[in-house]
Amino acid sequence: MGLQGAGAGALGSGLEKVVVSEQLTGRHVLAWLGAFFAVMFVANIALIYFALHTLHGSELENPYDASQAFNGRVAAARAQDERGWKADVLTRAEGPGERVMVEVHDRAGAPVSDLEVTARFEHPFDAAKDRQATLASDGLNYEGVATPVAPGRWTLVIEATRGAERLYRSENKLMIADTAPN
Predict the structure, then answer these.
(1) Where are the domains of the chain?
(2) Residue-wise pLDDT tens digits, 122-170
(3) CATH among 2.40.110.10, 3.60.130.10, 3.30.470.20, 2.60.40.10 for 63-176
(4) Suppose 135 and one of 122, 144, 153, 170 were both cysteines; which one would form an S-S bond, judging by CB atoms 3.0 to 4.6 Å apart?
(5) What is the chain's alpha carbon radius of gyration, rounded to the nearest angstrom?
(6) What is the pTM of this model?
């Protein structure tokens, strides 16, 4: 009793005996494991949802050359802004393809003619799915049909050139709806 009594007196009465009322059973371990995997499942579902519903990355064939051409793209964009041209673009499903209609207007609102206009549907991450159409002019407007474009998100790039000089370029994000009958 000498050691036990001396230890108790030296430590004081601040120590209390902790009694565990329940033992750790297989059911408790199973419940903790179930809760852990449920949290992981919910987190994975959230990550998959956000991965599929946000913008995808871009594909570059040669990033170095793209970076070297940056100043040229900036100069072309400034020249386009100085021209003040605007383009009205309309797309609609036509047969298996997608019809594109473009009206190009100068700063005063007059139609711009004598251009070579192309429309390119760029897939967000698969360049093999890209579709292009050369638009024909009726004197004021430009129209053409791109080969079948799958439903989903696309970037519609409109480019207008005269000779070798690109005079206008616009990139338009759009969503192509599934037009197949149910």
Answers:
(1) 24-54, 63-176
(2) 988 888 888 899 999 887 889 999 888 888 889 999 999 998 888 999 9
(3) 2.60.40.10
(4) 144
(5) 33
(6) 0.60
